[in-house]
């Protein structure tokens, strides 16, 4: 290591990744597919939400997005060009089961079947997520994730997909970031369906956990291949401030992290979570037998990481705005009944275009901490990446040195975790394509491939070329 690259700058040059480490990239259905009304697809909660004035920046919707639905062959070729070893995508539930009648839409299945075949033909492993937030609107109309019946529908959908693709996918993932679905969707309201009901948010937490367990059972019963089974969680890597720092961190760790890892990986809700939220709900929606259903073995735990979060206790006297951490925080500020709330505070930079602080050491810390908490659990980074305000240079290239630097530093962090004995199987860059960034619409670009949203033309950014070289050499460029 040269003197200009001190050990803690996370810019490891030449670090070599093991031969079986999987390099991939990720997307999600609503963010890239478009074709919102085609081939039998009906609206999801994100179609409804994005059409509601004031919800999404600029009134953007996923109606066209990257038009991936029509350009899937071209996008598959792009993946080959980049040398991806795995591709993580999600399935749009309303394409598969478009109406409350439960009837299956074969055209929807055919689309994903072609995608999976196209990946396999190119030697790219298909990693399929069942739920990346596009709940069919008819299910939301019947109560959404706050209603237990949604888990019945999810189990049936999982069975259908297990039968359709379970002979060919490499990895099944039940849910992507249920934290966002529950707390941002039903508590803070910044995501679809945009409800502000703390008790419903906690009911949603449990129903998502239950849906995960039921889907794993259904997928295992119907998949005839030998897929791995997983779930993807976004973890809060916490820092504390002030006198009550450790108490503030404990509360958010319980609410954001252990509310999912507890039931999924240990078969129980943490006692402190139940106590902290007792003025909001009595958790009577947890029925006998549920926790055993939720607690199914998984082969790999998907970890999404972007930045850290800093919290402190707040006495509730001075009027404070709820700050937005990762995708808008659900601090204690959302929870009535306690005289000391938790607030998310601004963090030291540097920042990405999302305003998220860049902290690669947080990824290393998270991976090490998870492998200490769950020693037998293999891990996979299923999302990491950064939005920056890219521009196209005169020669048509897209120089994005900040994104490359962000990725280099986080790959270094992952490598350090490997060196520290973490069973880390692979890494998916978020995202393959610039896409619909939820409440931010098309304003935030996360892709290693640029998408011109007028012409829909794709251009591999410099970071994409950098990633291709990393995959080819398995070594961080010097
Ligand atoms: C996620 C989201 C992605 C986001 C990305 C950046 O799983 O967090 O699934 O859809 O686009 O995280 O916010």
From TrEMBL:
Keywords: Carbohydrate metabolism, Cellulose degradation, Glycosidase, Hydrolase, Polysaccharide degradation. Substrate binds at residues 31, 132, 176, 306, 430, 437-438. GO terms for cellular component: cytosol. The keyword tRNA processing does not apply. The keyword Membrane does not apply. GO terms for molecular function: beta-glucosidase activity. It catalyses: Hydrolysis of terminal, non-reducing beta-D-glucosyl residues with release of beta-D-glucose. It comes from the Bacteria. The active site is at 177 (proton donor), 383 (nucleophile). It holds the Pfam family Glyco_hydro_1. Coiled coil: none annotated. InterPro entries: GH, GH_1_N_CS, Glyco_hydro_1, Glyco_hydro_1_beta-glucosidase. One of its GO terms (biological process) is cellulose catabolic process. Its EC number is 3.2.1.21. Belongs to the glycosyl hydrolase 1 family. This is Beta-glucosidase.
């Amino acid at each position: 290591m040269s003197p200009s690259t001190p050990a803690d700058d996370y810019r490891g040059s030449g670090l070599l990744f093991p031969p079986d480490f999987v390099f991939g990239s990720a997307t999600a259905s609503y963010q890239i597919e478009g074709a919102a009304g085609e081939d039998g697809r009906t609206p999801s909660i994100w179609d409804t939400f994005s059409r509601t004035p004031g919800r999404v920046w600029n009134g953007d919707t996923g109606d066209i997005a990257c038009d991936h639905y029509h350009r899937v062959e071209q996008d598959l070729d792009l993946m080959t060009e980049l040398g991806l070893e795995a591709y993580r995508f999600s399935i749009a539930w309303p394409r598969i089961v478009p109406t409350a009648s439960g009837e299956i839409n074969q055209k929807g299945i055919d689309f994903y079947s072609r995608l999976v075949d196209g990946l396999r033909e190119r030697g790219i492993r298909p990693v399929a997520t069942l739920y990346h937030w596009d709940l069919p609107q008819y299910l939301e109309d019947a109560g959404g994730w706050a209603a237990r019946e949604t888990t019945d529908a999810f189990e049936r959908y999982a069975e259908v997909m297990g039968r359709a693709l379970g002979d060919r996918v490499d990895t099944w993932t039940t849910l992507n970031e249920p934290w966002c679905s529950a707390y941002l969707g039903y508590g803070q309201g910044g995501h679809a369906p945009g409800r502000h009901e703390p008790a419903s948010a906690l009911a949603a937490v449990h129903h998502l956990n239950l849906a995960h367990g039921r889907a794993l059972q259904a997928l295992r019963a119907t998949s005839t291949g030998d897929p791995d089974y997983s779930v993807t969680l976004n973890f809060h890597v916490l820092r504390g401030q002030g006198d009550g720092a450790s108490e503030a961190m404990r509360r958010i760790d319980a609410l954001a992290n252990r509310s999912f890892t507890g039931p999924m990986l240990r078969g129980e809700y943490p006692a402190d979570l139940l106590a902290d939220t007792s003025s909001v709900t009595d958790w009577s929606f947890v029925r006998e037998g549920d926790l055993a259903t939720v607690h199914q073995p998984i082969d790999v735990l998907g970890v999404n990481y972007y930045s850290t979060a800093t919290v402190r206790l707040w006495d509730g006297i001075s009027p404070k705005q709820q700050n937005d951490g990762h995708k808008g925080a659900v601090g204690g500020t959302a929870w009535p009944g306690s005289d000391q709330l938790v607030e998310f505070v601004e963090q030291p930079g540097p920042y990405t275009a999302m305003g998220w602080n860049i902290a690669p050491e947080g990824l290393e810390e998270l991976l090490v901490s998870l492998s200490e908490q769950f020693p037998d659990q293999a891990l996979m980074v299923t999302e990491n990446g950064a939005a920056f305000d890219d521009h196209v240079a005169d020669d048509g290239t897209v120089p994005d040195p900040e994104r490359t630097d962000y990725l280099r530093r986080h790959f270094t962090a992952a490598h350090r975790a490997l060196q520290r004995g973490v069973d880390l199987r692979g890494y998916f860059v978020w995202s393959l394509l610039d896409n619909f960034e939820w409440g931010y619409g098309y304003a935030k670009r996360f892709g290693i491939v640029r998408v011109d949203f007028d012409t829909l033309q794709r251009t591999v950014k410099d970071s994409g070329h950098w990633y291709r070289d990393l995959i080819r050499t398995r070594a961080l460029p010097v």
